[in-house]
Amino acid sequence: MVGLPFPCRAGPGDTFSKTGPDGRKGSPVLGEDELTSGRRYNLDELGSDRYFISSSQASSDMASPCSLFPYAGQTGSVYTGTTGSRYPASLHYGSVLPPAGFSSPSVCTGRSQFGSGGYQFSQGPGCLYPSYPGTGISSMSLPGSGAGPRAQVYLCNRPLWLKFHRHQTEMIITKQGRRMFPFLSFNITGLNLTAHYNVFVEVVLADPNHWRFQGGKWVTCGKADNNMQGNKMYVHPESPNTGAHWMRQEISFGKLKLTNNKGANNNNTQMIVLQSLHKYQPRLHIVEVTEDGVEDMSNEARTQTFTFPENQFIAVTAYQNTDITQLKIDHNPFAKGFRDNYDSMYTAPESDRLTPSPTDSPRSTQIVPGARYAMQPFFQDQFVNNLPQNRFYSSERAVPQTNSLLSPQSEDAAAAASAQRWFVPPVQQPGSNKLDLSYDNDYSTSSLLSYGIKPLSLQTSHALSYYPDSAFASMAAGWGTRSSYQRKMTTGLPWSPRPSPPAFAEDQLGANKDKLPEETAPSATGWMETSHSLKSVDSSDAGVYSMVCKRRRMSPGASSTENSPTIKCEDLTAEDYNKDNPKGTGYYAFYTSP
DNA sequence: CTTTTCACAGTCGCGCGGATGGGA
DNA sequence: TCCCATCCGCGCGACTGTGAAAAG
């Protein structure tokens, strides 16, 4: 079978579930691809820092991305095994994928995620991220591929992902299947308007390790189980569809479910089978197909893969890190019922809640605590947290830096920095303010407000199927804004980024501009701070921390306030989110990965 | 001891059915 | 009076994290 008979809408995952990539075996071809994937990871894992890099640094950094980072591989790399890139992007330089490189599910069936060989960590000197956001590169063409313009993918709810990623995201898996939160949501540009594409998500092991939560942090614990069976892919229900369709609206995978039920792959196409305490990396695949959904194998460049490092997560059957739990409760609308004690937890005077932290970074002192309130509480509440102002503040504070895998400062700053490096699609029409999302062009006017305020008018139900009456809530929950926003869009510009709201931007613009210097801080700083933070907790009272961290909600004053970097971190975080949201850009990371 | 499973309570969206109002 | 569209309330089900019990 050459074609890939993606089912249309109904039962989109059938094909994959039946012939899914269970137990993929390694192959030399794919092995090389693995290598590239791994490299990508090295860069990606530090993605947050990458965003932190100023534009001027970007180019040099990209030249030798690995040198930027003190470590490579294990904790962060996308472990693709020997066949992780079963859908190698056509952007892979020198891809050796055969013409049928994009393996049909049937072909992939039986392959082992780990293969028989050793794990390949991609730590090569090469770099597969020419589209580094800071460079402003919009797309790239595969040499010799003859393919059209490359697609670009934006991670719509990236700030939220970063928030979780900062603490090492955990995703609950159950036998019945559990939805992801945050869920994957993308905006795609650069597709052929009339061509047909299948869009699907694959979840692959991020590394070959088994993880466990110990001493308040995640540590490796032996090797991962390499015999995991089950469906690893989720085809978007609207596949196949035209490029215009995919670009017209946000592509959300909110109904994607994660399960540890190995038998789920046979009867439930909505679920991806994962293994608890393993780290995974979701990947978005866009495959050009014929109108009937059959993959066109004539050109390997028709397959594109996008990986966002902030989407990495560890599958768990029960939450380990209470910071993650709190974030889920704070942001997931379905967990609203667990927020009831939140107010009481944080209604204490601020002086009681804030504890000076010796780990405060110098950088964070640049933030004026009051600024965040002066800026735009509206945005924070409605778009970022959907929480009362004081709760948002408390929530941020509740993030103990000592428990972070990544530095909040660097992460948030990275998000902010990335937001500034808006990618302006080449198709953008000059003079169209609707498309004017670049920073220099008052990107603050690209506020999400307009998208949120507009009532939903979905022609398709995949996006924002929940909270149709509350776009703000959906924003906070990770549901995209495209649906509401698209209503304002001109039909002639399905690929257009956000329109510019008529008002509401003045204050934000000013506030954002004030923070520009921060966003150009060196990335290395953020990383080193992170390492320091981790070390501090490790060397000190990890045991105590663990106790405090677990079930933190039962003792709200413990970890959150005592271990947190307190006001500086809080303000910084909030500021960064303020910077993200008013621009709207914060919700759209840009990656073009091989 | 760690990990998984299950029942539970709370929230919210959706669908259904009844009530209401306007037009033919 | 009848028909149709709209609005509103109710109940069901999906969804969440919690916490205890079970399993390994």
Automatic annotation (TrEMBL):
UniProt-listed InterPro entries: p53-like_TF_DNA-bd_sf, T-box_assoc, T-box_DNA-bd, T-box_sf, TF_T-box, TF_T-box_CS
Q: Where is the T-box domain?
A: 155-340
Q: Which SUPFAM superfamilies match?
A: p53-like transcription factors
- CDD domains noted in UniProt: T-box_TBR2 (cd20205)
SMART domains, from UniProt? TBOX
What's the superkingdom here?
Eukaryota
Which residue intervals make up region (Disordered)? 11-34
**GO CC terms, sorted:** chromatin; cytoplasm; nucleus
Which keywords describe this protein according to UniProt?
DNA-binding, Nucleus, Transcription, Transcription regulation
Q: Where in the cell is it found?
A: Nucleus
Provide the GO MF annotations for this entry.
Answer: DNA-binding transcription factor activity, RNA polymerase II-specific; RNA polymerase II cis-regulatory region sequence-specific DNA binding
Q: Which GO terms describe its biological process?
A: CD8-positive, alpha-beta T cell differentiation involved in immune response; cell migration involved in gastrulation; determination of dorsal identity; endodermal cell fate specification; epiboly; invagination involved in gastrulation with mouth forming second; mesendoderm development; mesoderm formation
Q: How is this protein named in the record?
A: Eomesodermin homolog a
Q: Which organism is it from?
A: Hippocampus comes (Tiger tail seahorse)
